[in-house]
Design a protein that fits this description.
Layout lengths: L1 H39 L4 E6 L6 E7 L10 H16 L11 E5 L3 E6 L18 E4 L8 H24 L5 E6 L8 E7 L5 H12 L12 E4 L3 E6 L10 E3 L11 H7 L4 H30 L3 H7 L10 H7 L8 E5 L2 E7 L5 E7 L6 H15 L9
Parallel strand pairs: 6-10
Antiparallel strand pairs: 1-2, 2-4, 3-4, 5-8, 6-7, 7-9, 8-9, 11-12, 12-13
The structure holds 2-acetamido-2-deoxy-beta-D-glucopyranose (NAG) (6 copies).
One 2-acetamido-2-deoxy-beta-D-glucopyranose binds next to helix 1.
Length: about 400
């Protein structure tokens, strides 16, 4: 019984060790290619995959985007990556090949390997869903309250712009920035980079997800490097990258306003105020004209209005004799009838000079309708439209 147990245990153990060895062998095969492949690539990026599930290994290495200069050159990139692969390969056996996803997010290069397909484009909409690795400077931004507020908000703006610039910078997806707050605080420098195989959309989504890590509390810190598998950004109050910054941010001319991005946005809408005032003035003017005309008409009319309308002395209206209407509507013929509405019938007609008219005739037996008809005519008279004619 005991022997069986030991044999079983040995079987399980050797199977486990064998599996672990296959993965480790695959990993070694992959890691050996990365230093040269990464440094010889124009974008300083290389991927590799080897083996079969469940022991398949996916890996990539990436050198920082500014490693193209005289000092940080191709061989520097190779050495940087080789140092990282050596760290894995030379680790004590117990620590070697022990994780499903391993990452080494260095200053100048990064190395990631996994059983998961980290080479494929991200599945979600956030440019990946791995937990960000955060490295913060312990020190806070110093200075008086207004300066600190200005510096942190400008740093935020700097990061937002750097991230956007990096995402659109094909094929390397890399950007650097510098911000001068105009205070005694040193210039803040920023860097953002995605894997060069990322699309603009995925790169932006990935970096924006990382920006979310910089909350109100953490934005006081003097620097940080935040990494995910497919992207990272970094900012510091000292020079940490080579070459010229690709973007530069300076505070707006009046520092006493301490303009946050939101304030600047609302100020840019100031031009809208004169337009609104103009529109209000125009409306008031039109209203004044309209009302005063109504008032004078009322004062003038009041008692005599009804007569004026009916007697055709209102010069703004054309008056027609009943005979003219009979001719126009072909004696109110059935075929000229357009419809029935309220207390009258509407007819189509044509005046001798050719214009088409619509004409409403009060129903002959509508006693109560006469008042309403009169009201309607008076209303129409007040409307004063050139296409309205009056008649009885
Ligand atoms: C990598 O490149 C260097 C320099 O070109 C060369 O000496 C070395 O043999 C290469 N290594 C591999 C694994 O190809
Ligand atoms: C990467 O290295 C391997 C092995 O040295 C080689 O077969 C392959 O072509 C290289 N890939 C690139 C993109 O250079
Ligand atoms: C890269 O830089 C190193 C020093 O950092 C130098 O020794 C080497 O010659 C340079 N290589 C090339 C190809 O420029
Ligand atoms: C690689 O590691 C060696 C030894 O630790 C170190 O001297 C060298 O600066 C490292 N190179 C890079 C590029 O990190
Ligand atoms: C930085 O600021 C935070 C929030 O005000 C505070 O909790 C923390 O102690 C500060 N850290 C240092 C090193 O001053
Ligand atoms: C800000 O982020 C830090 C680190 O990620 C976290 O510990 C802290 O709880 C966050 N604070 C707020 C107010 O969300």
């Amino acid at each position: 019984m005991a022997t069986v147990g030991v044999v079983l245990l040995l079987l399980v153990l050797t199977r486990f060790l064998a599996a672990a060895d296959v993965f480790c062998d695959n990993l070694k095969t992959v890691l050996v290619t990365l230093p040269n492949n990464t440094s010889s690539s124009p974008v300083r990026f290389a991927t590799a995959a080897f083996g079969q599930a469940p022991d398949i290994v996916y890996a990539f290495a990436l050198c920082r985007g500014d490693i193209v200069g005289v000092v940080f050159n191709e061989s520097y990139c190779r050495e940087c990556v080789r140092n990282m692969t050596d760290k894995v390969l030379n680790a004590a056996p117990r620590e070697q090949c022990y994780k499903d996803t391993y990452h080494d997010y260095g200053d100048r290069c990064i190395l990631v390997y996994s059983r998961d397909d980290i080479i494929a484009p991200p599945s979600g909409e956030n440019g990946g869903d791995d937990t960000p690795a955060e490295r913060w400077n312990d020190k806070n931004v110093t200075g008086d309250v207004d300066d600190v507020r200005l510096i942190t908000s400008l740093t935020r703006e700097l990061l937002v712009q750097t991230v956007e610039k990096a995402a659109s910078a094909a094929p390397r997806r890399f950007a650097t920035g510098i911000m001068d707050s105009g205070t005694t605080f040193p210039m803040v420098r920023s860097l953002a980079q995605c894997r060069p195989d990322a699309s603009t959309v995925d790169c932006l989504a990935c970096l924006r997800r990382l920006l979310g890590v910089v909350n109100a509390t953490m934005s006081l810190r003097m620097g940080a490097q935040i990494n995910a598998i497919r992207c990272y950004f970094r900012y510091e109050a000292y020079r940490f990258y080579g070459g010229e910054a690709t973007l530069r941010l300076t505070p707006p001319p009046a520092p006493s306003l301490a303009p946050t991005p939101a304030k600047r946005r609302s100020m840019s809408k100031l031009w809208a105020i004169p337009i609104v005032i103009l529109l209000l003035a125009a409306a008031a003017f039109l209203c004044f004209i309209f009302c005063s005309r109504r008032i004078t008409r009322k004062r003038r009319g009041k008692a005599g209005e009804e007569q004026l309308v009916w007697q055709g002395k209102n010069s703004e209206f054309s008056m027609f004799e009943f005979e003219q209407v009979l001719v126009a509507t072909n004696n109110f013929s059935e075929e000229n009838k357009l419809g029935q509405c309220g207390f009258g019938t509407v007819y189509k007609g044509q005046l001798p000079e050719g214009s088409e008219i619509a004409l409403k005739r009060l129903a002959p037996h509508s006693g109560q309708g006469f008042t309403e008809f009169k009201n309607e005519v008076q209303l129409i008279a007040k409307l004063k439209h050139k296409n309205l004619l009056l008649g009885s």
